[in-house]
Amino acid sequence: MFTYIVRRLALAxxxxxxxxxxxxxxxxxAPGSPMSQIPLTVPPDVRQKIMEAMGANDPVWARxxxxxxxxxxxxxxxxxxxxxxxSLAEGEQRILSWQSRSPVFDIIGQRIPQTLTxxxxxxxxxxxxxxPIGIWSAYRQYSWFDQFGTFISMVGFSVPTFFTxxxxxxxxxxxxxxxxxxxxxxxxxxxxxxxxxQVRQMAMPVAVLALFNAAEISRYTRAAMLENLGxxxxxxxxxxxxxxxxxxxxxxxxxxxxxVVTVIALGLPTVFGGAIITExxxxxxxxxxxxxxxxxxxxLPMVQTLTFIFAVLIVVFNLVADVLYGILDPRIRYD
Amino acid sequence: MTDAAAAPVRxxxxxxxxxxxxxxxxxxxxxxxxxxxxVLIGPFLWRVDPAFIDPDAAVMIKTRNQPPSLEYPLGTDQxxxxxxxxxxxxxxxSLAVGxxxxxxxxxxxxxxxxxxxxxxRLDGPLMRLTDLFLALPLLPxxxxxxMLFRDTLxxxxxxxxxxxxxxxxxxxxTSWMQCARIVRGEVLALKEREFVLAARSxxxxxxxxxxxxxxxxxxxxxxxxxxLGIASAIITESALSFLGLGFPPDFPxxxxxxxxxxxxxxxxxxxxxxxxxAISLTVLSVNYIGDGLRDALDPRIRGR
Lengths: 335, 304
Known about the structure:
Mean pLDDT of chain B: 83
Radius of gyration of chain B: 23 Å
Structural class of chain A: mainly alpha
Number of strands of chain A: 0
Shape of chain B: elongated
Structural class of chain B: mainly alpha
Helix content of chain A: over 70%
Oligomer: heterodimer
Low-confidence stretches of chain A: none
Largest sheet of chain B: none
Order of helices and strands of chain A: HHHHHHHHHHH
Strand content of chain B: under 5%
Order of helices and strands of chain B: HHHHHHHHHHHHHH
Shape of chain A: globular
Number of helices of chain B: 14
Strand content of chain A: under 5%
Distance between the termini of chain B: 29 Å
Largest interface: A-B, 45 and 44 residues
Number of helices of chain A: 11
Number of strands of chain B: 0
């Protein structure tokens, strides 16, 4: 197992390097890059100075290597300094946003709490809804509950989040006025009243994302449960006189959880990607919104870094899913 | 000879009969046909230009934001354009994007899958490529691609064709991986079958081998992947349009109409609901058809 993890980690490094190269080149070599967007009225020598100040004049490979060094070495050093009060990264050049001239990672650090509270809660709620629904629909296959649950999960899976979000706004924010339609990032939770306010403003984005995730996970849970319910060991357990409860929740559920847990792990990074849309609908000031803002402003370092962070998340969670699968299912041997 | 000719017909009939027993798939099929009629034949019956803005400013201001009436069955938008005609035009573009993007992705996926499955030497590199693509953050990359290439392509090919090609190509290039994996698996299994060995022993060259023996046998999983691919392509296109990085404003698609409607959400919610409903219904129907098709094409389920 340990050697497997080490080998997978070693394989992840070239993958990440290649992805970073793809992202860097795609953004950098594209015809619409902001180097071509400096107005023509700017005199050539000033133009030259602007390009130099942005560091856009160096050859591609130099900028790529510099960016890699900044991403993997200098930024972690800054983080270390920030946590332990050391000064290892003194004077080193950080990745700067072209929009605000402040370090990209500072902006990301400001934005991530909002994304994590909304997306994290939504994923948790989604999983908590999906598991019981999936289990019960499989146990009572073709009952009205199963039919209804399958239909709802198909709907939740098919209706795009930007439409469910807008629909919820129309019903609950405009007509009923229960929840605010815009997420207030400046809200600080200090007492019960502000906590209640926070819950109310989180309700709709969480509901939208939770519905979408629950739809997918409950489908997998149902399928995995169905497969295991037909196995011989279930009949044996019943024949031994075990209660339905034990058979279902101990024997079948444990075995069915193996694929479901991996699906949950694999789904996490896509949730971050999908949250881009939900953040836009409810004006949540998270990293998805930061990405959209950077794209509209042609802020290359920001776009490159954020996109690469999404890629890192995907690679890491793929690894986590594989390792979890190996730990949970003793039949799988990685040698 | 008649037997050999009758076999595919019989099989097709069996598939159709199994498909018919899937209630959701049949309802989905009817829905899709209705939507197709709406966007394809509708404009012949409802002859209103979706981009028509009355040149007379006074008339234009009077016809703005109309509620549904006999003259404007779905009302008008903030520039006095007829929403029904815009829904039809938008649907045509949305469905066309879905189909063409799916075609590109299936073509790429099948090509990579067959090559990787059939030629052992290509298997490693092609599958690493697939893994690499699977690890890319697709939505952010799509957004970046559209942002970077939209203006250039619009300048070269005109705003409509340029954006259409860009979006279709971008979606196709980022969604072929599932199909490639499925096809590769099927091809690997097929390669060990006797009829392939027989064909090889009479000296069939690889090209004919793939086209005549392998491809027809991997058609069913490809068809299922294609159906589901249309749904995800339509969602991706409308998501791009919704984020403001899709088609230009005067060129309606369902996603674009929804995006434009969001600004007037409080006063005229119907302007958001109609395009949203159309997207959702299309995707739901296509997903159900895909489900039914998967069951119908699976010989283990068929006939039970």
